[in-house]
Amino acid sequence: MPTEVPAVVARAKNAPATVETIIVPDPGPGEVLVAVQACGVCHTDLHYRDGAIGDDYPYLLGHEAAGVVEAVGDDVHDLARGDFVILNWRAWCGRCRSCRRGRPWYCFATHNARQPMTLLDGTTLTPALGIGALTPTTLVAAGQCTKVDPHAPATSAGLLGCGVMAGIGAAVNTGAVGYGDSVAVFGCGGVGDAAIAGAVLAGATTVIGIDIDERKLRWARQFGATHTINSRERDAIDAVRALTDGHGVNVTIDAVGRPEVFMQAFYARDYAGTLVLVGVPTPAMPLSLPLLDVFSRGGAIKPSWYGDCLPSRDFPMLISLYRQGRLPLDLFVTETIGIDDVEGAFGRMQRGEVLRSVVVLG
């Protein structure tokens, strides 16, 4: 029968998120009920609260989570009660034109649970990124659950569900960083530091972290940055070139998503270099770039959707690397908090005091 649980809900634009009781239905065909053990407080949740993504209020916040399968609906054959899973927000369909081309990481028809979760009065909730995991129990599509090694702590493993995967994938999948490459990452928050960790995993020998906050630059060095640049104090483009014999780097990664940062990343590349945009812009941000420069510098400009990841391939592999001590997932967890402290976590996020606040739910 349906379950009543507390959850973090954003009711209106720019209004504080509140903890309210919601109703979660039993899983139907193709759906899974998950007992959420931990969920990160992601900047995307703040965007939902503040209306930067849409206006389908009320929103059920949270999407960066791990937990245990409680129940499965009909037609679910590869998951069972007790499986430890990381939730993902791009469940590929297998039928769209991208999936049929063998590129499911670009699936154009990703799907979520069909049944809605609701407030007590029956108001339908819009789950953040189709998940809604800042609650002890959530309902998702079976394809949004990826089984991984249950020995990994949920507080760290769940972060692969969004920001950490986006950053690592931006470097490894989208940017195709390889042995001996040089990389510059603009913005050293959670996604940027994950891109630094991904570049290190991929064998880059020069990894440059760029930010205006010295605390974030210290974090970048913890994740393997070989050099850091405070772009409030030095011109980022000149500084990158000075570290690369005047040429620029092979791959730049914009983990901020602002036009002025994008321009820096564009010109900090070597000729024929790659620029990866993984930071999410807001709808009102325009970009003005000389078309001749786009042509004459060559290379590639590549947006990165979710790090171009395939959860069934990437999540177990990254958890294995974590268990081997090669991927420092625990470093992303600045603090663990309760469900009542999400608004406080938003404030600490905006002040740059945390990489990730993680809500412990079970």
TrEMBL record:
Superkingdom of source: Bacteria
Cofactor: Zn(2+)
InterPro entries: ADH-like_C (IPR013149), ADH-like_N (IPR013154), ADH_Zn_CS (IPR002328), ER (IPR020843), GroES-like_sf (IPR011032), MycoS_dep_FDH (IPR017816), NAD(P)-bd_dom_sf (IPR036291)
GO molecular function: oxidoreductase activity; zinc ion binding
Gene3D superfamilies recorded: Medium-chain alcohol dehydrogenases, catalytic domain (3.90.180.10), NAD(P)-binding Rossmann-like Domain (3.40.50.720)
Alphabetic keyword roster: Metal-binding, Oxidoreductase, Zinc
Domain Enoyl reductase (ER): 17-361
NCBIfam families: mycoS_dep_FDH (TIGR03451)
Family: Belongs to the zinc-containing alcohol dehydrogenase family.
Name assigned to this protein: S-(Hydroxymethyl)mycothiol dehydrogenase
Native organism: Micromonospora pattaloongensis
